[in-house]
Amino acid sequence: MQRPPIDMFAHKKKTAKTVKREPKPINKFLWILLAVVAVVGILLGTCSNIYVDIMWYSEMGYLSVYFKELITKIIMSIPQFIVLAVLLSIYFRTLAKAKKGDDDEKKAPEVKAEVINEETAEENFAQDEKPVDEVKKDGPVIKKGKFVYTWLPLILAGIIAAVVSFDSTATLWNEWLEFMNSQPFNEFDPIFGKDISFYVFRLPFLRGLVNELYLLLLMIFGGTFLYSFVLLIDKSEVERSLENLSVDPDEAKGIIKKIAEAMRVQLSVFVALFMIVAAFGMYLSRFEVLQSSAGIFYGASYTDVKILLPLKNITIILLVLSAGSVLLFGFKKKIKPVFIMAALLAGVTLIGNIGAWAVEGYVVEPNQYSKEEEYINHSINYTQKAFGLDDVETVEITLDEKMTASDIKENMTTINNIPINDYRPTLDTYNSIQSMRSYYVFNDVDIDRYMVDGEYTEVFISARELDTDLLADSAQNWINKHLKYTHGMGVAVSSVNAVNSTGQPELIAQDIPTVTEFETLDIDQGRIYFGESTDEYSVVNTKAMEFDYPSGNSNIENVYDGEAGIKMNLLNRIVFSIKYGTTKFLFSSDITSDSKILLNRNIESRVMSIAPFLSYDADPYIVTVDGKLYWIMDAMTTTDKYPYSTPYTEYDFNYIRNSVKVVVDAYDGDVTFYIIDKNDPIAAAYASIYPALFKPIEEMPAGLVEHLRYSETLFTIQADVYQNYHMEDTGVFYNKEDVWEIATQFYETSKDIQVNPTYLIMKRPYEEKEEFMLMIPYTPKSKDNMVAWMAGLCDGENYGKLVVYQYPKQTLVYGPMQIEQRIDQDTTISPQLTLLGQQGSQVLRGNMQAILIDNDILYVEVVYVQAAGGEQALPEVKKVIVSYEDTIVMADDLISGIEMIFGDLDGEDKPQTPSDKPSTPGYVPSGDGLESQALDLFNKAEQAIARGDWAAYGQYLDQLGDVLNRMNTAPSQNTTPSVDSAE
Questions:
Q1: Largest CB tally within 10 Å, which of 534, 647, 896, 906?
Q2: Integer-rounded Cα radius of gyration of the chain
Q3: 3-state class of 113 per DSSP?
Q4: ∠189-192-193 over CA atoms, to 5°?
Q5: CA distance to 187, 614, 748, 956, per residue, from 200 (Å)
Q6: Is there a contact between 784 and 795 (Cβ–Cβ < 8 Å)?
Q7: Helix pair angle (264-288, 309-332), 10° resolution
Q8: β-bridge pairing 596-598 and 538-540
């Protein structure tokens, strides 16, 4: 048989089955490079943000405020870390030495000799046939001993110290500052007799400290268990478990028993320390009953004081004794005291809770008022103090005399400042007729007062800001948004009492640049670089001239010469490129070394970045003083730790003060914090923490002081709280016999809307001079008659005072909603309002304003008309409704309406008898059936519209006009004044 030829190279060939394509190795260098780039990017971004923050705070002059948190954390964490690390390392080294000593006693000398040095290992090499280095590598005693007994205690101590130090510093740094800088309230709680500062400044830190002690003990216990496990468990035991992937039950029991026996003392110490900390926490919880919300009112109740507080005291003692019993078990192995104390703790807790339930259900509830009277009184008193309502001046108003024309003439400053416009329609009008360009916007209309032509005048004022988001789409580029369109310009101002012939606000300061006839409204520097609508950063002093304002078919340009901004040197250009993720800072030829970047231009974010620990009124307002524009913001101090004070649920705090006024320069961006309430301990504590931040109010320029006003946010909160807490009699408060409500009104097309606080210039009852104030009316709960009104005073030495004027309960004083309802029921006014709302128009009702003239109330409501359905429709003032007592009239203007009721203000006083009412234009006497004819013709006209008969509608309208003309010229024959004719 012929054999196949022999392949001499067969051993070098691989079959297809054995050939494998090795996977392409991953380029480790690429991955490392990407990781390095990512880390560097994160570091650069973080460092650039920190660098920018440091530059910005330095520019603002508040660098010490920025570093306060960092310095405080360093001061807290480093000493804490060092002390804990040293003590814990000593502790773990002590455990190690104790275990090592036990091991040394158990080991035979020959065993120690075998593993003690290299020479012994080399001798064993001949027997074990292992190289020397492998013995050294695997030698458990030599290697493991050094790590376990030397390095592991240091590592565990460092980890525990780092975790606890970091956590305590991150969570308690602010509480620590408040603890160290606490200021006395000089008010003491009624149960423990401690100053309120203990609850506001000290107790929060102490509660946080208890939590950190728990964390520390848990970390030490965990570290002790881990270290004991490493010390006690043989390597062979662990290796057997891993190899078999199972644990022998008997072996596991042995391990647990071994660890438990070795850790008995440590465990008892830890449990005892836990109980001591728990006792301290229980001690602090005693004070927290003053902030309890479990009862019918806020604060400690009868059951809390009589049952729960003694129960807590007993529990504290038992916890301390239990700690002793646990230590006794750890050192003496006596378990019986532990069980006894555990039973006592459980029994006392159970019996105490059952007792509290029984006392509440069978002692308190059947006699609730008598048992809780003392504590209800605490709730009333401390809530009033916390919300600044304990110093409210209460004035009883008598209504003995009727208002006359002479009273009106003596209060013409008040009459001339009755708001005929409302701020919301005014804002629409400003944006329509004064924005000039699409990118200008009026964000808000503010109410303030100025001396205009020698008269104390209430005005609407609004800043004309520039919003780059409103630029045309084609103009939305980086240069335009950040270099070109950088600022707004000027303000629009109108008197609250004046409208032009079209019913729109009559401007007394307008256009760009601002034009005005009045010196107090003159503006030399009207550029607004910092405002409410400004969010983008701007780069100024560039080669690209800034847009200043439009002028005819061209634009005026400008270069910023203010003090604000960070210089754009090369380093800063690199940093801002990283921060904002753009290279334009580096490659823009318009930016030079003289250029500056303006940051945080939104005034709210600007102020909050500096002082985030304050709360702010949502409505900053702009003022013009000495030719410049400034923003004023109201800043509040708050806390939820005030004992016995009922929280304001909407914001969850139970103490508030408007202690700080913040002034922002609209051009330079300077921010100044002035403390206006020196009696506020929280503001005083912040001033101690941040000494460079606050200035006394005495340093505020006099021109700005004249424009300070009572915070609307604070006033609204106080007015809400006062609805219940004006009742000081505990019986009345308990039974809710005299609850007030803020009055309601119609507004625009909505009904039953709560009246907003209103800024008014009025002469208060029994006072000689008009003043600027914030006021709001009250009605009894579920009733519409006025019972009182509250005023927050704004001027001079009266600034910050609250005054409540109450009317006799036996006398009917109409409330705003009652006047609204009477308007709807008036057979003459209501049809005319319907007429005004026809033919594509919509009638809007303005605020119902209660105006004080001496002791009496004059109600005024403006009627607006706007085109229905149009987004750009402007509300125009068409009518003014005036009401006094039982008389309601509607006129073309305020003075006409007042004269319809009180007579000619320029002539002799007219007696208040209906027969003597003048037949002035706008006055509608009834008689000869003319009123019924007019109403009949109006109804017929409406019916004609409904059936689409426009010819008949025109005829009826002509006839109605004839009747109304006859009514306008007819002599007075009726005892009830009514309204003027419709246009």
A1: 534
A2: 41
A3: helix
A4: 55
A5: 12, 15, 44, 73
A6: no
A7: 170
A8: antiparallel
User: In the beta sheet, which residues pair with residue 446?
Assistant: 461
pLDDT digit string (tens) for 819-856? Answer: 989 888 888 888 888 887 776 778 888 888 898 888 88
Residue type, 317: I
What are the beta bridge partners of residue 499?
Answer: 505
Residues 6+ apart with CB under 8 A from 708: 632, 661, 676, 794, 799
Report the alpha-carbon distance of residue 919 to residue 925 in Å, rounded.
8
- Indicate the burial class of 662 (C-beta count within 10 angstroms; 0-12, 13-18, 19 or more): buried
Nearest-angstrom CA–CA distance, 916 and 912: 8
Q: Which residue, among 486, 694, 491, has the nearest Cα to 599 in the 3D structure?
A: 486
- pLDDT score at 113: 40
For 37-48, give the secondary structure using H, E and C.
HHHHHHHHHHHH
Burial level of 330, CB count in 10 A (0-12/13-18/19+)?
buried
Q: Half-sphere exposure of 939 toward its Cβ, with a 13 Å CA cutoff?
A: 8
**Contact yes or no for 562/546 (Cβ under 8 A):** no
Q: CA of 41: how far to CAs of 34, 164, 469, in Å?
A: 10, 30, 30
At what angle are helices 203-232 and 63-106 packed, to 10 degrees? 30
Map tokens 């000869």 to a residue.
928
Beta bridge partners of 760: 773
- Indicate whether 173 pLDDT > 50: yes
Q: How far apart are CA 3 and CA 462, in angstroms?
A: 111
Peptide bond just before 977 cis, omega within 30 deg: no
Q: What residues pair up with 849 in beta bridges, in sequence order?
A: 860
Work out the mean pLDDT of the chain and round it to a whole number: 83
State the residue for tokens 């034009």. Answer: 515
The residues near 70 (Cβ < 8 Å, ≥ 6 apart) are: none
CB 843 within 8 A of CB 836: yes
Strand partners, 759: 774
Q: Two tokens at 738?
A: 């005299």
CA diameter of the chain: 154
What is the Cα–Cα distance from 478 to 500, expressed in whole angstroms? 42
Three-class DSSP category at 373: helix
Percent of the chain with pLDDT over 90: 48
Distance CA 426, CA 496 (A): 9
Nearest to 174 by CA among 681, 566, 549, 611: 611
Residue showing tokens 């807290």: 76
| H helix count then E strand count, the chain | 32, 32
CA distance 121 to 925: 127
Q: Distances in Å between the alpha carbon of 335 and those of 129, 264, 274, 617?
A: 55, 12, 18, 62
Burial class (CB in 10 A: 0-12, 13-18, 19+), 540: buried
Calpha distance 774→713 (Å, rounded): 11
> What does the alpha-carbon distance between residue 70 and residue 86 come to, in Å, rounded to a whole number?
24
pLDDT in tens, 768-827: 889 999 999 999 998 989 999 999 999 989 999 999 999 888 888 889 999 989 888 888
Burial profile 547-556: b = 16 or more Cβ within 10 angstroms, e = fewer: bbbeeeeeee
User: Residue 305 is which amino acid?
Assistant: V
- Give the strand order in the sheet containing 876-884: 841-853, 856-867, 876-884, 887-891
Reduced to 3 states (helix: H, G, I; strand: E, B; else coil), residue 463 is: strand
**Amino acid identity at 495:** S
- Six token digits for residue 791: 């005023």
